Amino acid sequence: MDFSIFALKYYILIRIGQIAAGEFPVILAPMEDVTDSPFRSICKDFGADVLITEFVASEGLIRDAWKSRMKLQFETKERPIGIQIFGANIDSMIKAAEAAQNAGPDFIDLNFGCPVRKIVMKGGGAALLQDVPKMISMAKAVVQSTRIPVTAKTRLGWDEHHLEIVDIAERLQDAGIQAISIHGRTRVQLYGGKADWTLIGEVKNNPRMKIPVFGNGDIDSGPKAGEMKERYGVDGILIGRAAVGNPWIFREVKAFLGTGSVTAPPSVTERINMVRLHLEKSLLYKGERATLFEMRKMYSGYFRGIAGFKPYRLKLILSGSLQEVDSILREIQYLSLSE
Ligand SMILES: Cc1cc2nc3c(=O)[nH]c(=O)nc-3n(C[C@H](O)[C@H](O)[C@H](O)COP(=O)(O)O)c2cc1C
Asked: Does 49 have pLDDT greater than 80?
């Protein structure tokens, strides 16, 4: 008898509530003014398993502000997708979650980690790390008022004297949170120093934890992703800054995790074509002015490691029209062909 059929590998899917998120979800981390729908859909094409919108202000959603409403939009191909909301007031967060839910995402993500001063000063984002009972009440209230899964993204604690994430994670789970993403820094660290994954590993290895634990911080290559997966046993990872202007990171990480193979970096032509596609999508989504402005963050990523790119970066950033960008892209193409 041939038993080879039984040798088929069984994959265990990580679930966010009932939503299948892949065997080891590689997630595009939410980033303000970066992870809008055009960029998310490009990252999806390169293998991102789960997408999360940039954070949306609860107060903006309640006021039905145009800018906040725009941020709720997504394409069907972006699923599974979460809408991230932030705020300081529990009632506002309940109402904002309802508005976000009406946009039809797969889950809602609560931001308990944003370190930006103007948000923390108002009691939102990472400020909730200084008032954990309020964070837990907020999580519970949002969970109880929504029909879809609610997840949370946070940091290790407020500062090095308050590394409370192991306890916080348990309490968020008890409040009904269905997955937790942890950035391995404190609020006080902002984005400085190196992310410390030790406590993320402790959360994952806490036998009381049943929900998926996703690790985040400083992943910028396939081998780094593999190292964090093996060493800390997390259920998935989030990639933020390394994806800015570099959607290929998802292809690279997925290939490495899947087969241990290392993918070749994109050619100059591939990069230029991707910038054009990104510009096109963005133009449809937010018009020329905002596209020119927001693409400025992306160019360094798109052309990283390309010899002779430096003078073109400034030209791209200063360009005042898409036509101008187009002719600079032609110059870059010409430069690379003449090498
Ligand atoms: C420009 C920028 C914007 C960000 N905006 C958000 C946000 O809206 N919501 C959030 O939870 N985190 C936000 N973050 C944090 C990232 O999601 C991520 O946690 C952090 O960058 C660490 O991951 P990385 O080392 O892979 O970049 C932002 C980070 C950057 C650099």
From this structure: yes
